[in-house]
Amino acid sequence: MQRRRFGKTEMNLSVLSFGAMRIIPEKDESEIDSRERAFSTMRRALDVGINHIETARGYGQSEQIIGAALADGRIKRDEFYLTTKIGPNACGAEFRKNLDDSMARMNVTFVDNLDIHGINTQAMLDMSVAPGACMDAAEKAVSEGIVGHIGFSTHGPLDVLRNTINTDRFESINLHYYYINSRNRPIVDLANSKDMGVFIISPTDKGGQLFKPSDLLSQLCAPWTPIEMNQRWLLAQPGVHTLSLGCERPSEFDAHLEMAGRVHGPLKPEEQQIFDRLEFAIAKLGDTFCNFCHACLPCPEDVHIPEILRLRNLTNAFDMTEFGKYRYKMFAHKDPDTGARIGGADHWFPGTDAAFCTDCGDCLPRCPLNLPIPALLRETHEKLSGEIGKRLWKD
Questions:
Q1: How far apart are CA 166 and CA 28, in angstroms?
Q2: Comparing C-alpha atoms, which of 94, 109, 153 is closest to residue 395?
Q3: Rg (CA), the chain
Q4: 123-132 own/partner pairs: CB under 8 Å, 24+ apart
Q5: Are 123 and 117 in contact (CB under 8 A)?
Q6: Which helix (H) or strand (E) is 116 found in, with range?
Q7: Which of 83, 117, 214, 294 would suit a FRET pair with 12, their CA atoms being 20 to 30 Å apart?
Q8: Please, is 247 exposed, middle or buried when counting C-beta atoms within 10 Å of its C-beta (0-12, 13-18, 19+)?
Q9: Torsion, Cα of 265, 271, 272, 277 (10° steps)
Q10: Of 222, 227, 254, 225, whose CA–CA distance to 243 is shortest?
Q11: Separation in Å, CA 383 to CA 212, 322, 326
Q12: Which long-range contacts (CB under 8 A, 24 or more apart) does 267-272 make?
């Protein structure tokens, strides 16, 4: 498997990382079966050439399972770089207590990379870098030799990401960036200018649930798969260093290995033809295409207009209806009886769904494409609304 220098950390990471957020017990699975599946999945990750395991304090029992695998001997500490993530905390002593506990859970004395997990708002950034807060504690852990490097993970908007990077206190960034959502491209470029490592969150799942693509998307990507083409698009960019795979079982790595083993230079003509086909399908949306510029925000009802219209783009251009429903249900919804705001994923996936639109028209003069936004929101809500969703983990 190809490897890339992870920015100024100088860690030489495989282009695929194992995200351990899903190595948790499944419903109706015995503890013995769950442990064996988790151990086997980690073992397979290392056997196929992955040298980076990434988890978080908030991912259920993931840290404990990694520690048990190390104690069992199924994996060895010198086979991989280890990242864990811990949420922001205004109290440095509390953050350090959490770090010590996480290391005990994982049965390790050294963590190669520690991410401040979820700097999603300016308030969270300000809290993190305040004197005596979590960044001071993390940097002290580096000086003590128990942490190698400090990064951050984020689901935040561009201004928060820029401000976080420009503190110059982080060596890497963990963010969403995919062919179907390239809004964070300026952030990737800024991180590269600072020689930061760039880690892509969940490209197969959040990048479109590409493990179960629509027939149309599969046809457009042929002779490769949508998983492979998204990987290719990302890894054609030298400033993208590693992609997270949240595999639950050993066989799930198979769909990613061929592309990960290639030398990733610029796109070849036959590959560019596939992306041209994808762009042509998007162009068919005509004057209803949303370019995801965010000029329509803020909405007085907190409707996340650009994200809703991005899901509309994908649904109409690529028949990605199931993915659209999967993401749409993450917005806060209206209680059908009281009209109150319910559900939602807070700062991890902010905003309300299109049912909250009042046709006030505030967004219309701000849209550079002159889109009929309220009508498009209603159309999208009719297609994608359904059950209320929630994030797999809180942090």
A1: 47
A2: 153
A3: 21
A4: 124/88, 124/347, 125/160, 125/163, 125/164, 125/167, 127/88, 127/89, 127/90, 128/88, 128/89, 129/167, 129/169, 130/90, 132/91, 132/92
A5: no
A6: strand 111-117
A7: 117
A8: buried
A9: -160
A10: 227
A11: 19, 10, 12
A12: 267/232, 267/233, 267/236, 271/224, 271/229, 271/232
Instruction: Write out the H or E segment, with its range, that includes residue 299.
Output: none
Query: CB neighbours (10 Å) of residue 184?
Result: 22
CB neighbours (10 Å) of residue 354? 25
Q: Where are the alpha helices (DSSP H) in the chain?
A: 31-47, 62-72, 92-106, 122-129, 134-143, 158-165, 185-193, 215-221, 226-235, 254-260, 269-283, 305-318, 321-328, 373-384
Could you report the per-residue pLDDT of 140-154, keeping only the tens digit for each? 999 999 999 999 999
Instruction: Name residue 178's beta-bridge partners.
Output: 181
The domains of the chain are located at: 3-267, 286-384
According to DSSP, the residues that pair with 4 across neighbouring strands are: 13
Q: What is the pLDDT of residue 395?
A: 52
pLDDT classification of 387: cutoffs 50, 70, 90? low
* Residue carrying the six token digits 């790595």: 253
Read off the pLDDT of each residue in 175-192 and give the average, rounded to a whole number. Answer: 97
- Residue with the two structure tokens 């899901």: 311
pLDDT computed for residue 323 by the predictor: 96
**Domain 3-267 class in CATH:** alpha beta
Q: Give 197's strand partners.
A: 172
203-244 pLDDT, tens digit each = 999 999 999 999 999 999 999 999 999 999 999 999 999 999
Average pLDDT over residues 329-358: 89
Could you read off the pLDDT of 274-325 as tens digits, one per residue?
999 999 999 999 999 999 999 999 999 999 999 999 999 999 999 999 999 9
Distance (Å, rounded) from C-alpha 341 to C-alpha 304?
14
Residue 211: which region, alpha, beta or left (left: phi > 0; alpha: psi -120 to 50)? Answer: alpha
Instruction: Give, in order, the Cα–Cα distances in Å from 127 to each of 78, 119, 162, 173, 240.
Output: 35, 10, 16, 18, 28
pTM to 2 decimals? 0.93
Return mean pLDDT, the chain: 94
